[in-house]
Each structure stands twice: as C-alpha cells, then as structure tokens.
Amino acid sequence: MSREKKLLFNSFILVLGTFLPRLINFFTTPLITANTTTLGYDTITLTTSTVISMIVPVISMQIEQAIYRFLIDAKSADEQKTAITTGISYIFAIMAVVIIVGTLLPIPVFGGVWKLVLIVYVLSEIMACQSRFVLRGFSKYRQYSFQAALIVILNFVFILITLVGFDLGYGGVVLSLTLANVFGILYVVLTGKIYQYYRFKYFNGDILKKMLQYSFPFLPNNIAWYINTTSDRWLLKIFVGGGAAGIYQASNIIPSLVNLIYPAFNMAWMESAIKSVDDDDREIYYRKMFRILFRLLAAGSVALMIIAPLLYRILIRNSELYEGFVYTSLLIGAVFIYSLAQFLGSIYVALKKTRNMTISTTISAVINALINLALMPFFGFEIAVYSTFISNASLLAYRVYDLNRNSMVLTIKPRQIIFTVVTMLIVGYAMVSTNLIFIAVGVVAGLFFIYVMALDLIIDFVKKVLKIN
C-alpha cells in the first residue's frame, strides 16, 4: 500500500471512529450550559483544559510521546515490551507522587469529596493519555477509534445522570469525565491485551533516560501551547470577569468543530511523516500533502462559517453567551491557521527537531500574552480574540520560514492564499450581518470558493475510498 493510500486509509478509519463521538461530545455543551451558570461553565472548561493541557503533560513529562515513537521504531517484541514497561513504570511512580501531593495541598473550588474526585480525574487522564499513545504506537487505529467513542458516549450518559439527574454542578461534570476515562482505560488494557507487554524485568533505566531525553522538549512546547490557548480566559477573568471568560469559551465552540475531523488526519499524518522521513522523495511528499491540506482546510473553514449561525443557536442554550457569536468567524480563521501549523509540527517530530517546534510555540505564546497584558485592561473581551488570531498566524509564519530555511521548501500558491483571505473576510462579515442581500452574497461566495478549492479533491477521495478507477 502506498504512503498516500495508507494515510488516506488510516485517516478514514479515525474519522469514522471519532466523528460520531466528537459530535456527541459537542452536544454535551447544551447540557452543561443549560444546567450551569456562566461562571460555572467557565470553571468547568478551565479545570478540564488546565488538567489536560498543563497538569498532565507536566506530571508525565510527555513520556507518552516517547512510548509512541519507541514503539514505531521497535524491531522486535522484546523492544516493544521494553518501551511499554519502562514508560508505564515511570507513570506508575509519578501517579503515586500525585496522590500524595494532591492529598496534602489545598485545591481551590474543589473541597471535600470533590478534591478526591479531581485527583482521580487527573490520574485517569494520565493513564488514558498513555493508553491512546500505546494504541497509536501499534497502529491500532480501530481500537483507538472505539476507545474514543466509548469515552465520549459514556461521558454524555454520566453527565445526564450527574448534572441533569442529580444536579451536582461542575463537580458532576468532572466525575463524569473520570468515570468515562476509567472505562476507556479498562477497554485498552483488556481488549488490546496491553498487559501482555508489561513485565517489570523489561524495565531499562538507560532506555528511560533516552525516552525522557526525547520527550522533554515536548514539555515546554505543551506549556507554551497551554499559555497560548488558555491564558486568554485567565486574563479575561482577571481584567474583565468570569462571565466574559465564559462568553469567550462559548465563541470558541463552533471553531473547535474543526476537531471533529482534523485531529484524525493529523494523527495518521504524523505516523506517515515519521515513516517517510528517510525516503528520497520526502520533500516532494511533504509539500504535496501540505498543499492538499491547505485547500481542504480552507474549504472546510468557509463551510463552517456559513452554517455557524445555525449551529451556535443549537449548541449554546444560555442566552448570556450569545454575544460571543460576533467573533466566531475570526476564531474559525484562527483555527484554520493553527491546523496548518500543527501539520508542520508533525514534520518537526518526524525530523526529530522538537526544539524548533518548542521555540515556535513559545514565541507564539509570548506574543499572545503580551498583546493581552498590554491591551485587554483597556479594550476588554475582543482583545482575547485578536491576540489568538495574531499568535496563531505568527506560529504558522515562523514554522514555514524555519522549515523552508533549514529543511525543505513548503509553499502555497499566492493566488490561493489571496483567494482564501478575501473569501473568508466576505463570508465572515456576511454571517454577522442583518442585511439579507449581504448574507446571500456571502453564502454564494462561500459555496463558489468550496467548489473551486475542494471539489476535485473530494471526488478523488470518494473514488479512492470506493476503489473506482
């Protein structure tokens, strides 16, 4: 199977397996917003994003990245057992420390039994993260997709019980996430038979040192990424108030719908990029995929802008959060840019230039923080939106420049860039307009753009999936 077909096949499996659960995950948003206050909704999102994006990566030292890479490079069952045993043993030791420290330290907002729930949630996220990367290391994408579906569906059910049924508030949401993670971990351990690869005799201190040396550069990258994506809401809480942070989070709901499909592709792409890194035509392959991705992401982003008004009303059930819609199109553009930057980040991983990846993310995070600190006290909520867009643009610009200068040429045709920018501006402004003619013009312009940019790629995709010659 060729690289392109294998990438397409793996992406298709992951999309099939993750689209429905991610869609269900987005429909938990109305449940949460309808049963919590604006401040409570912000507490939930900040807690979960802080645990997933900051606490877990710092605690685990991103060892899952090393487990994944070492499994891909493993040439025998013994090497696989060494990678899994060494990495998971390290995680077990870290989890013991978490229990001790978490028990002794006071945790704001979460008191009494909810403190224990939060600690268990952190532990479940650590193990769920490791299990996902083990499945990826074995290229078990069907199991990966099923686990994703299982966790999200169970989370939806548990939220119905804890939040709607028992009115447990944001604590109930954290409890639901924890229970769903536990079942997801058990699925991987039992059906994936990961336990067969864990034998303490295969623990290797030298391998652990190498794994940590590989994974450590991901840590500052993750911290910088967290600052870049979450500092907006923290600073909004400080300068404007918790309600504004909740509105900002709501305005990101539609843009984050890109995560219904793109992460599936990016996971498959990372494996393909790693396995193609030593090929003679590596640069041609990377450049081809970059150009295809640009066209598909641009078309998808414009389509999302067109349907955003309807989706926003469906997903956001709290009228206090409606004013965030004005900024939705700009944030969709920001996610489009960030997705392209993620694609280039996978190339950094393939080339083992994680230091360059970290530098680019750090620069982006600093730009984001400086804009917010300098302007948010004076201009308020909208600065968070503009800082996100500018910082994402700087991230993409740096990575394109750095890779073109030091590794390979990755370019997009200038006319496609201009066409994309102009169309997104027209459609974005049209969707927040009250003028029916302007709205109609925006929809027509968007549909024409989608036709020009993506129709041939979509047809080619369908033919390959259906095996039509």
What does this entry look like structurally?
This protein has helices at 3-26, 28-34, 38-60, 63-73, 77-104, 113-137, 141-165, 169-191, 205-215, 218-239, 242-251, 262-275, 282-315, 328-351, 354-379, 381-406, 414-431, 436-466. The protein is an all-alpha fold. The two termini are 16 Å apart. The relative contact order is 0.11.
Blueprint (SSEs and pairs):
Layout: H1 3-26, H2 28-34, H3 38-60, H4 63-73, H5 77-104, H6 113-137, H7 141-165, H8 169-191, H9 205-215, H10 218-239, H11 242-251, H12 262-275, H13 282-315, H14 328-351, H15 354-379, H16 381-406, H17 414-431, H18 436-466
> Could you say which overall geometry the principal axes of the C-alpha atoms support?
globular
Q: What composes the largest sheet?
A: none
The strand count comes to 0
Beta-strand fraction estimate: under 5%
**In which range does the helix fraction lie?**
over 70%
Defining traits:
single chain; 469 residues; mainly alpha; 18 helices; globular
Summarize the structure.
The chain has 469 residues and is mostly helical.
